[in-house]
Amino acid sequence: CHCPMTTEIYSGKPLHGAVIEYPSAGYRVFYESDDNYPQWCLFNGGGGNGYFCPEPMTWMIDAPNLNLPDNESGVIDLAPGGIWQAQTKIRLEDI
Questions:
Q1: Where does the chain show beta strands of DSSP type E?
Q2: Beta strands 53-57 and 17-22: pairing type?
Q3: Sign of dihedral through CA atoms 56, 60, 62, 65?
Q4: What is residue 75's predicted lDDT score, i.e. its pLDDT?
């Protein structure tokens, strides 16, 4: 599954990321990214394995080969010596 990332309001504050709840363990995981990760991929190894992995991404899967403009596919043209930076944060919160 591949989806564009949007910022949502969670508990009255903007959240750019994923919230995964584990009620039986009594906590939730927040996986947040800055706007430099405009795409997310949700991977679960084909399902039935007891896990899934939200992955922040800069571009769509196979973006250079898609017939889409760079600003839509996420392709970044980084020149030699160029710099690209992004941040992610993972935190736990009791439910």
A1: 2-4, 8-10, 13-15, 17-22, 27-33, 39-43, 53-57, 88-94
A2: unpaired
A3: negative
A4: 95
Q: What are residue 70's phi and psi, to 5 degrees?
A: -55, -40
Amino acid at 81: G
Q: Three-class SS of residue 79? A: coil
Check residue 65 and give left, alpha or beta (phi > 0: left; psi -120 to 50: alpha): alpha
Give me the residue label for tokens 């990321």.
17
Between the two ends of the chain, the Cα-to-Cα distance in Å is 27
* pLDDT tens-digit series, residues 52-73: 889 999 999 999 999 999 999 9
Kind of pairing between the strands at 39-43 and 13-15? unpaired
